[in-house]
Design a protein that fits this description.
Radius of gyration: 20 Å
Distance between the termini: 40 Å
Structural class: mainly beta
Order of helices and strands: EEEEEEEEEEEEEEEEEEEEEEEEEEHH
Shape: globular
Largest sheet: 4 strands, antiparallel
CATH superfamily of the largest domain: YVTN repeat-like/Quinoprotein amine dehydrogenase
CATH topology of the largest domain: Methylamine Dehydrogenase, Chain H
Number of helices: 2
Strand content: 35-45%
Low-confidence stretches: none
Length: 320
Amino acid sequence: LATGSADHTARLWNIPYAIMTGHTNYVNAVVFSPDGRTLASGGADQTVRLWNVVDPARPVPLGPPLTGHTDSVTAVAFSPDGHTLASGSGDQTVRLWNVTDPAHPRSLGPALTGHTDTIHAVAFSPDGRTLATGSRDETVRLWNVVDPARPVPLGQPLTGYTDYVYVVAFSPDARTLATGGADQTVRLWNVTDPAHPAPLGQPLTGHTNAVTAVAFSPDGRTLATGSRDMTVRLWNVADPARAAPLGQPLTGHTDTVDAVVFSPDGHTLASGSRDQTMWLWGLNVDQAIQRLCATTENTLTPAKWDQYVSKDLPYRPPCP
């Protein structure tokens, strides 16, 4: 597990954890490379730093800090092949870096321009051909990064938000993009042809404060969202044009939920919050029913089914 903090540090947690120092201001973003051997961190000191974390108890700095941004680095993401790193900044630009050899990273071409305010989110599509960026300017932009040294803007900016865009995420099949923002909504976009993106259905509503985290399940059928309203919500996006809420909001956090991620098998969801806790949520319905039966005196009524399992699944008496 990697975390970044306002105490100027990034930390690796495997109990015991390691502390990586070097940034001289807040660490805003951290991300592992796809092979798990490298960690990138972006900070308010306007730099990106790379770390060898092959032995997570003994991380080692790699190369010099990546410089070029003129404001806080607010987002970082690796391409699926691990050869390219994208960084977004308060300077309204995105920069791409060749990190094929992370000990000798180098800048790729000029900065990507077009946004008119801080960039809060960057994400590569699973095939690595498209980069999505979300900004405080209330737009999302798509870029062709097949040749990351020569990125090309794709289509028109995605609009419709009435406040900052905080998060972006591609579905595993790269056909759908989910975005969340300060207007409390989640929006889904058809990006099958990223040069001609189109909105899918109506904005997903339910959160009562900014949406600060989004993630697709490995099979692409479920979307998890986290919010400043301190809840996590799940959505059925098997048909993204007809997305619908799944069950009740997941509650327990006492501050903004900044991160959500599914386990590789899709049966567990992890959520991280500014309340300094991480929660794990079991999403396997059969296992959940077994646990409920063990704690509800062997009675799971239709009302309890709706409350604890799902209003979207037909009731069946599960307890012997």
